[in-house]
Design a protein that fits this description.
The complex is a heterodimer of chains A (233) and B (188). Chain A has helices spanning 3-16, 27-33, 37-60, 70-92, 94-100, 102-105, 111-121, 126-155, 178-206, 222-232; strands spanning 158-159, 162-163. Helices cover 69% and strands 2% of the residues of chain A. Chain A is globular and about 60 Å long. By secondary structure, chain B is of the alpha+beta class. Chain B has a five-stranded antiparallel sheet with strand order 1-2-3-4-5, with helices on both faces. Classes of the chains: A mainly alpha (233), B alpha+beta (188). Chains A and B meet through helix 4 of A and helix 1 of B.
Chain lengths: 233, 188
Amino acid sequence: MKLTDVKNQFADGLFNKNPLFVQVLGTCASLAITTTVKDSIAMGIAVTAVLTCSNLLISLLRKFIPNEVRIASYIVIISGFVTIVEMLMNAYLPDLAQSLGAFLALIVVNCIILARAESYASKNKPLPSVVDGIAMGLGFTLALFLLGSVRELFGAGTFLGFSVFGKNYTPIGMLTSPPGAFIVLGCLIALFQYFKKRFSVKKAASSDAKPDSGKPQEEQPDNASEAKEGDAS
Amino acid sequence: MKNVKYVAKIALPLLAICIVTVAVLAAVNAFTSPVIAQNRQSELDANMASFFGEGIETSVVENAEFDKSVKIVYSVSKGGALTGYCFDVTGNGAYKGKIEVLVAIGADGRIIGISNVQNGETPSIGGRVLTEDYISENYVGHTSAQLERDKDVVFLSGATKTSTALNNAVKNAFAAYRLLSEGKEASK
């Protein structure tokens, strides 16, 4: 695997195919957990760890797992890793585990992890799968961080627990409740799409060598583009 | 026969994955569960110290007549004199079934403090009941006769179920407290 592949994978994970802002995967946990920046980062890191480990193992076992029971196998592997992460967090980061609560266990059904297992790790070699896990996980963490920042900053007037606007600021309480989460997520997706379009148009104009980069990628079905990547590597 | 072979071909790998996963989980659990138990214990000790002050001695009290809602009872003493009890109790009726709290009752029969042990309530809704502000306003200093709804204790609107569960938990704690204090008088 080449360095440019790694670069492309990171660009995809963080930007072009950001799990939350472009693929809109794993919204349930994202909306519930992003009331504070601290929880957002913790959740992002937990998801990244599970995603990287499960991608590696599923990629290693991709020829051993029969096609008929692949989803069941993936779920067993993923839930195994989630339980390990949960036990480790309970043991060594009890405060964080307490504040994430049930959502830590619910990473099992976070569709990002199953989606990457199904569409990438099951078709690619272990190393690119690990890179994919890290890139997608970081993309998810970035998205959670942005969502959590907006909600904590304006919804509670604090950032990482420190007061930012002083005592005279009246927090917009709705932002910390679920409807506020939907509104913030919608605004962030719109903003993200705006920047993505501007960025990709510029890129296409400056270099004609890469014909792929100008096209809006989110319109392609994810599986089709992944299959292409799989053949290449 | 062909069918059996086919089923075995897809079922055995899945079985193998399950067995390996379970084995790994068991190993991690053996490794982390003592640490988790120790964390719980030190948190409990810190809670009891915040209720009764530093320099206390605690010991577990056994009594066969305790209701099954009472998980553990600690008697707390300071310098040899009994200062109160801590009850690890559950209360039914919460939004997600049960809540588990630690209720500290002094030797004079008044509530010293209540802290959360485990619950599945939504933090911004039912969780408001399990905050220090709510508890110190509605429970601290009350005796077993001062637990009536809307008279002695205000149930939060929107969180009636969690309020009910907390009230039940405190009543369970007092039921155990009564057993202990009656038992002591009988032995005198």
